[in-house]
Amino acid sequence: MELYRVFYTCAKEGSLTRAAEKLHVTQPAISHSIKQLEKSMGGALFSRVPKGVVLTREGAVLLEYIEQAFHYIALGEKKVAEMRQLLAGEVRIGAGDTLCKYILLPSLESFHDEHPAIKIKVTNRTTPESIALLKEGSIDFALVNLPVTDPQLEVDKVIEVHDCFFAGPRFEHLRNQKLSLDELLCLPLILLEEGSNSRQYLNSFMQQKGYRLEPEIELGSLDLLVEFARIGLGVSCLTREFVDHEGSTLFEIDLIEPIPPREIGIVKLKNVPLSEAAGAFIHSFFAM
């Protein structure tokens, strides 16, 4: 690389002496570098003239490509500098629909307002799918339902949430009553589909208590769980923190043995540095 830098400077300056001054080296060092390059190229690249040097035909051809190379190097250095200053770059995030809507969106809005040149790419996947994308290198980090136990991942806890059962007016007779798990499981249950971390957490809790869940309906999103409960098709397991109670006809069923709280967290690969943009986003996320 350094030989080409010497060649490029000599070609532009038309003088070995001026090239030496510009590169802050001695003229003999410049001459030696040019001889090394000419040897590797198999012929002369410069001809000496009274006022300095001029390119041979072969040297002129080489200069065309060297100029392009140095142009792209300069562009690359500029782009990296912009990324360091958050004037360019991209943040790639994995998150499920619910976590994206209730936790990620406020941070996305404020980060975009502060860094409008940073591209933001959000991939909607379940927690296991987001972790798979993370390991593939397709995303920088993921917002997931905990617990996640994986030696390849670094986990930062974000918020504690509570899974509860909610019902609509058709089950009004259950309001203000304390139900046992036996009584709960006699009701038509509406749950998230198998495969999500939150469903696995609920399954694990019930198994520890000696029960096996047999839902009436399984759905793929929190919004659908809310709507199905609202029209009375059953009682839905929802995350209390993500239910809009204002103006809602839903009410929470009081359990004698409530489901223990779980946590939402950010996971990233251990020992893999984040880009400047991704690191800045996580910093602003926890600062909110």
From TrEMBL:
Signal sequence residues: none
Pfam families in the record: HTH_1 (PF00126), LysR_substrate (PF03466)
SUPFAM superfamilies reported in the protein's UniProt record: Periplasmic binding protein-like II, Winged helix' DNA-binding domain
Span of domain HTH lysR-type: 1-56
Gene Ontology MF terms: DNA-binding transcription factor activity; transcription cis-regulatory region binding
InterPro entries: LysR_HTH_N, LysR_subst-bd, WH-like_DNA-bd_sf, WH_DNA-bd_sf
Domain of life: Bacteria
Keyword list, A-Z: DNA-binding, Transcription, Transcription regulation
Protein family membership: Belongs to the LysR transcriptional regulatory family.
Name of the featured protein: LysR family transcriptional regulator
